Amino acid sequence: MRTGNGEAIPVNAMDIGFIGQHVWNGVMLGVIYAMVAVGFTLFFGVLDVIKFSHGDVLTLGGFVGLATYLGLQRAGVVSPLIQLTAVLAASIGSMALLGALIARYLVLPMRNAPAFITLLITLMIGTVIRESIRLFYPNGSNPQPFPQLLPTHSSHLGSFTLRTDTLILVAAGVTVIWLVHMLVNHTRLGLAIRAVAQDSETARIMGINFRWVVLATFGLGSGLAALAGLMNGMFYSEVYFGNGLMLAVIGFSAAVIGGLGNIYGAILGGFLFAAIQIATVVVLPLPSAYKEVIAFGMVIVLLAFKPTGLIGEKSSERV
Amino acid sequence: MAQKNATSLLAAIVGIALLTGFSIYALHAENEVSMLILLAAGLGGAFVAHKSGFAARATQGLQTHRQAGNLCIVFAFAVVVLVFRNDHFALLQLATLLLYSAVCIGLNLQIGYCGVMNFAGAAFFGVGAYTAAVLATHTQVPHPLVLLAGGLAAALIGSVLLLPVLRTRGHYAALVTIAFGTMFRSFLEVNDTLGGPQGLTVPGLQILGWKLSDGPELFGVSFSFYVNYVILAFALVTAMFILTKRIKRSWIGLSLDAVRIDETAASTFGIHIVRWKITAFVIGNLFAGIAGAFFAMMTGFVAPTNFTLADSLILLSIVVLGGIGNLWGILPAAAIVLLLPEKLQAIQEYRFLLYAVAVILILLFRPQGIFPRRLRAFIPGWGNAR
Amino acid sequence: MSSTLLECRGLTMKFGGLVALNELDLDIRAGEVLGLLGPNGSGKTTFFNVVTGIYAASAGAIRYEGSDISKLSPQQINRCGITRTFQRSRLCLELSVFDNIMIGDHQRLNNGLWFNLMQRARLETQIREAVDRARELAATFSRTLSEKLFEPAGSVTMIDRRRIEICRALISQPKLLLLDEPSAGMTHEETRELMDDILLVRKRIPGLTVVIIEHEMNVIERITNRCVVLNYGRRLCEGTYREIASNADVQQAYLGQS
């Protein structure tokens, strides 16, 4: 029996605690993936576009948070509460703004172009963000340690270690997802988003300001990404410029599994993907790089059987 | 009329000669200052050529005098090879340029003609390379077949990835290829049988007893052995170019376009969507795989770092820069994207960033690329190929 | 007494909760020009989409020349000799007029790899012959169109684009032609021209059956033999134009409760 790093551990450690640890990790991963996937699905729903820079926005959010923290430190601010608040505000706020700007100037003008073009543009935007971090952040090509902004004591139950900060992160993540669900289903903005997603022409005729809805959606999704980036940073205690790409691929896959355009599908897909990854690590004695490959292979197989995803993609073509 | 024909042919010849001269100076440029001067001269020259109508006249000449034009191009190529006959590095660059262009021809077929997204061009190139590495090192398979096997491996893996998702909308194909492009490298790095991060060494190309790693001697003049590879690469690329042009100028090209532009309408007129998408994808991947196999045997070495998503995006930048669907634009675009950072060392580090920005700008403001794609002329010289 | 070319029984098409076709019974007789009428949303275009295989019917049967075609793909249905035009023009505007027309003849052209890549001389013969056919077909509708065969389709006028769509549908010499609102967005003059074209078409391909969705009543009156009116996905009534025009139910369906 091996851990994810390939180390052998004694068989008698294979108790509930051990499995539980992995499950708990899976839940954390699932929350992050779900948040990314929800962003993808929102963008697709509203504008029929796959915004591949999403993962890199996540990374950038983490870096903005880091920079804010370092700046506060230098300014002598030590209160953890202020640090946390400032980091959250700076990161989420700036990424939401960036998302809206990207939508306004780079995605909206291209919405009538073939899908390949918008995908390519967003991939390139992601590259710009990624490379900018690598080139312009001091020592950017190496992973940067991320501060512990949350209480760090942990409790042990057998071989199951529960870090308090992970608990907070999971709770926060779940809450945020629930809030997004509430927003989309019980507010006017959410109604507007759903209307535009279903039929943008009619929505416009009905008086909904298409452009504002798109900008708001992209801002919302990008803010979510920033939060996910912070959570990612806090969970792994580091941020790395190259993280975004894999997360984007995973987030996109998760959104696709659940059915593009469907928020519940995205959430389901996120947790499902995490589950497959964890199961792979626990069951198979392969190096961790394989876990993505296998999880991804399963996604392809799933798509072969259910091309529109588990819950069903929104169909937007009018014949 | 005869007079006009003669002048356009002359314009074409002069144009090719000028371009050849420019390329030779560019390949030769040793430092950044001379490169920048050349660049400025080149841009200025291009501007003048365009405004004065010279460029249009020259292109017309190429279209109407295809035999002469093709001969000119081959001759120009021979001149370049001759000039650099002992410059290992320049020849290697030239060959690499040609091989990457081969992959881009395949990409143009997939994306530009048929609309099938492929974000894993470099990964399929890598499949061909690793296939060649394994086959040439561990088996006695004759090398021409090894090249073909590289192509087939890329085509096979591409089909396996794509077939499940082809019945669905285009972005699933994108997802599959992006994922493959992202994971190919990590898959190789953890795989010790395939050399892991260090990679594998590959024997040089040998065709029917002709060892390409032996420098040829002609009329008492010795050439770098890379000349062999360059010439063969040129032949390969030319073959792929001709084949792809023929596809464009045929009923197949029409079907591919119909699939790309409007699947629903195409299907109501009997066009089988999956069949044509797979056809385009397989042929494109064949090109990429063969080029990859050739590359491996030429450089003698394969390693995962050559086949990342960033490399795939570079290939796509070349396609976009040269004009999606336009074959003639590939080589100049490849030269700009691949050679410029080598010559201008200052921008080497920043090249991914710069190219990403350039592609974004082009897609926003001039999506047809520098040289936009022209209308299909089934028989060259027909109609208004604009 | 003409035979029945296409018959539908109990044809139902549901999109989630929306019932677009509601147990529709419809016959199309060989050689006729049938007008398919009805207010917006009554299922006319959906009917075309189901017949041509773009949607799979939720229930019911479609028989064409005696065989069941309800499970066939659009490609297979095209092979049976059924072609169509679209309500929203679906041309490849960046391709030439000739290219667009020849898309319609896909099934009869040789698409083999070997033929197209290696047998160029024979390909060229086939291309030249196709050009002649396309030019001749286009010329029956419009001299200017036949001269613009190698211009991009996006550069010709609206009415010429409609003609291209019709040429595309006709180049394969179909048995059943479905026209979806061919005169939408046209002036009266252009509509008259187009209708003359359609009558010409019928002379060119004797025995051609045409089903035309239209809202222009003088069009319907002039060129149809028979009309069927749909409402809420069902057949409301049928008959000659005069008969259905004076039918009270039809008037109510179009104009609402009086």
Compose a concise summary of this entry.
Chain B is mainly alpha-helical. Chain B has helices spanning 2-28, 32-51, 54-64, 66-83, 88-113, 121-138, 143-162, 170-189, 226-248, 251-261, 263-268, 273-299, 309-322, 330-343, 351-365, and strands at residues 200-201, 206-207, 210-211, 217-218, 221-222, 301-302. Chain B contains 15 helices and six strands.
Derived structural class of chain B: mainly alpha
Please tally the β strands of chain B and state the result. 6
Instruction: Quote the beta fraction of chain B.
Output: under 5%
Inertia-based shape of chain C: globular
The separation of the N and C termini of chain C measures 39 Å
Structural class of chain C: alpha/beta
How are the SSEs ordered, and which strands pair?
The complex is a heterotrimer of chains A (319), B (386) and C (258).
Chain A: H1 16-47, H2 54-74, H3 80-107, H4 115-136, E1 144-145, E2 154-157, E3 160-163, H5 164-186, H6 188-198, H7 200-205, H8 210-236, E4 238-239, H9 243-258, H10 263-283, H11 289-305
Antiparallel strand pairs in A: 1-4, 2-3
Chain B: H1 2-28, H2 32-51, H3 54-64, H4 66-83, H5 88-113, H6 121-138, H7 143-162, H8 170-189, E1 200-201, E2 206-207, E3 210-211, E4 217-218, E5 221-222, H9 226-248, H10 251-261, H11 263-268, H12 273-299, E6 301-302, H13 309-322, H14 330-343, H15 351-365
Antiparallel strand pairs in B: 1-6, 2-3, 4-5
Helix pairs in contact in B: 1-3, 1-4, 3-4, 5-9, 5-12, 5-13, 5-14, 6-7, 6-8, 6-12, 7-12, 9-12, 10-12, 13-14, 13-15
Chain C: E1 4-15, E2 18-29, E3 33-37, H1 44-51, E4 59-64, E5 67-68, H2 74-79, E6 82-84, H3 97-103, H4 113-118, H5 120-141, H6 143-147, H7 158-170, E7 176-180, H8 188-204, E8 209-213, H9 217-223, E9 226-231, E10 234-239, H10 241-245, H11 248-255
Parallel strand pairs in C: 3-8, 3-9, 6-7, 7-8
Antiparallel strand pairs in C: 1-2, 1-4, 4-5, 9-10
Helix pairs in contact in C: 3-7, 5-7
Structure description:
The complex is a heterotrimer of chains A (319), B (386) and C (258). Chain A has helices at 16-47, 54-74, 80-107, 115-136, 164-186, 188-198, 200-205, 210-236, 243-258, 263-283, 289-305; strands at 144-145, 154-157, 160-163, 238-239. Chain A is mostly helical. In chain A, helix 2 (54-74) packs across helix 8 (210-236), helix 3 crosses helix 8 (210-236) and helix 6 (188-198) packs across helix 8 (210-236). Chain A is globular and about 60 Å long. Chain B has two domains: 1-83, no CATH class; 87-365, ABC transporter involved in vitamin B12 uptake, BtuC (Orthogonal Bundle). In chain B, the strands form three sheets. A two-stranded antiparallel sheet of chain B has the order 1-6. In chain B, helix 1 packs across helix 3 (54-64) and helix 13 packs across helix 14 (330-343). The mean pLDDT of chain B is 85. Chain B has helices spanning 2-28, 32-51, 54-64, 66-83, 88-113, 121-138, 143-162, 170-189, 226-248, 251-261, 263-268, 273-299, 309-322, 330-343, 351-365, and strands spanning 200-201, 206-207, 210-211, 217-218, 221-222, 301-302. Chain C starts with a strand and ends with a helix. Chain C folds into two domains: 1-81 and 174-258, P-loop containing nucleotide triphosphate hydrolases (Rossmann fold, 3-Layer(aba) Sandwich), CATH 3.40.50.300; 92-167, no CATH class. Chain C contains eleven helices and ten strands. Chain A binds chain B through residues 50, 52, 106, 109-110, 113-117, 119-121, 123-125, 127-128, 131-132, 135, 245-246, 249, 252-253, 256, 260, 287, 289-290, 292-293, 296, 299-301, 303-304, 307-308, 317, 319, and chain B through 111, 115, 117, 119, 161, 163-165, 167-168, 170-172, 174-176, 178-179, 182-183, 186-187, 189-190, 260, 264, 309-310, 313, 316, 320, 349-350, 352-353, 356-357, 359-360, 363-364, 367.
